[in-house]
Amino acid sequence: MPSVSQRKKNPVIVFLLEIAFGLWVFIILSAPWIVIPNRVGDVLVKKYAICSSIKDFFSIGNRYVKPKEANDK
Amino acid sequence: MIEASIRVLFAAFLVVFYSAAAFSLGSTALRRLGFSDQDQQELSWAGRIGTAFILGEGLLASVWLILSMLYGFTPFFIYTLLVLCCILGYREAFYFLAKGAQRLRTVFFDFQQEKRTWKIVILLAAACVLIFLPKTLDPPSHDAMSLYMAVPKLIASTHRLCSWDGPIYELLGYQGEMHYAALLSIGGEYAAKMLTWPTALAAAALLWAMASRAGLRRRGQWMVMSMLFSSSGFTLFIGDGKVDMFTAALGLASLYWALEIRGSGSRLAIRIVGLAGGFASVAKLSYIATLGLPLFLIVIWRSLFCANPTNASRLRMLTVTLFSVALWASPPAILQMAKTTVLFQEPLAPFITFGDHSSQQVLSVDIFSPSEKWRTVLFYPFFLTFGRCDTQYGHLSPLALAFLPLAFLLPKPKKLSQSLLFMLSLASLAGVAFWAVFHIFPAPRHFLPPLLTLTLLPAKGAEKASLALIPKRFVNIVILIALFGVLLKTLGMESWHLKSTVHYVLAGSEHYSHPAWQAANAVNQAAQPGDRIALSFSFPYLFNGYLLKDIVSGNEWNRIVTESDDSKKLWDELYKTGAKYFIIDKLWSRNTFKFKTSVDPSQKPDWLQVEEIFRDSGGRYWVYRITKLNSSSTPSP
After folding, report:
1. Residue B405 CA: distances (Å) to CA of B105, B350, B609
2. Number of C-alpha atoms within 13 angstroms, CB side, residue B144?
3. What is the torsional sign of CA B169, B170, B171, B176?
4. Which of B367, B385, B386 should one mutate to test binding to chain A, selecting the residue with the greatest count of A CBs within 10 A?
5. Which of B210, B227, B269, B505 could be cross-linked to B260 through a Cys-Cys bond (beta carbons 3.0 to 4.6 Å apart)?
6. ipTM of model
7. A-chain residues within 8 Å CB-CB of B401?
8. pLDDT digits 0-9 by tens, B35-81
9. Closest partner residue to B386 among A1, A35, A73, by Cβ?
């Protein structure tokens, strides 16, 4: 039996919220595979340009400096 | 094989003995600080046991520091004091453990009541805790071999507080370093690094207790444990030879006890907050802000909203509490002043220095471009979870970020001012945000206690969602999949890593196949006590203890590098320092020392013999022996 607070909520909104949460968790759990150095990430980055952009976005500091940002420094 | 097993077992025995001494000392100290039977009833068992151990470690490190300043840091005194701690404190220690064991039964009872899928999650989380024990037998990390275990090895071999000149790191307080020095004196490398595992357990116990205090139930507490042991920002410090685990545990102890402050009457809590916070902040400079700010906010909140207002005016109570905390934080600070005075005659270092020991390097790191700064600050939680930053060294568990939206669905507390979880999260957020805005650098080690405390909120949200009355809800399934995925990945990665651990243990550091070890061992075998070694090599830890005190110092190196225009001059200058062996890591030297000339043994003064005694197959590590050819020739003036 649903609790009193759950019964008041619109089931469609609850369903959509749950789907959004599932998507969010999927994105968060899959991102480290792309960004943090590992073989899966390397394959993905070579294959898909979008993964490369994500990797670049989270790479900061002198060691990971990219040519286009070198002028900023 | 048998020899390796005996070494590991001996190290394990020493760590148990050392931990027992620390726990006994901490239990006795807790009692002397005012721990009563009423506290025993009211406080969480995990909090009591964790605090006793961490406090004992903090005090033991101070004892070792004083002993080393008095030139008495010998294995005899170390053993004697450890035995004394065990004898004098065993009653209190058994009392704490017995009471804790009684309460531990409830954890097993709750486990039996859980559903099958959650039982598997709990078992996986428990396995994650255990899998990090063998990791303590790994080779030390790069930083550990450069500093964090190298200086302790020097202290252990000289039996007194000493240092090489130059590194700014020497100006900071010693916590983990003194434990390493003591265990290197009586046991060796395995024992020293293995101590980080019980320390990590104590830190976990404190976080467990904090979760309980903040209203999380058993399932939520296990989620916090899952997040903790899948956060590489925490687990990397188990057995890597760095010292951040000790400071993080002390920081968590101070945060836990800050929640127990209920005005100026809470003497025990105030004393522990001051002592533990003081020990942590002295050893890790960034904690002054990132731990100090949350503590300050919690103390204000507890004094203003949770104290009995009839006792005295709230403002007066707050002033007295803050003053008392500061007073109890002063012994670690005084000890630090004594240490820097003995070493460098710089009592106020690293804040105010009178000599060459500039504090600038410690206090500011500016490595990001303006665009990188903005990007990092705006997406700070994401950078903490999967950023790739210079020397970031570890991440926060993705579970924390994944479950964060569920925290926003938590029902609003009736009184925000009475919600421990709300206040603890807000105060911790302030500590992390302070660092994010003013220092940026998204490295968890600089603010680990408040960062780990922040995991309580998403864990509470996930617990609430998973305890909903409809068990097969999609959200519940997603939470379970996320927990299974992250815990299995952690277990898988660490299990895979065990192979290299076994390789290192079986070979032993004397026969380990890594070229850096081989180069250092070539020097260890050839050099005699008193021989000087010139290092263009970042792992002084690898040399025998008796060789460390005669290493060519940083200032001497700077002079050699700046004054040597050609190879002949370089060898000449090296000889003048009295160096008999010269070890060079060519890759590291290229990035660190700006040599004006190549290091060429054929281009040397005629009166000098430079003999190559080791070169690794990759051509990275070279070892030379420098000797004078005949007595008639003399080095250049």
Report:
1. 33, 41, 69
2. 23
3. positive
4. B386
5. B269
6. 0.85
7. 28
8. 887 777 778 889 999 999 999 999 999 999 999 999 999 999 999 99
9. A35
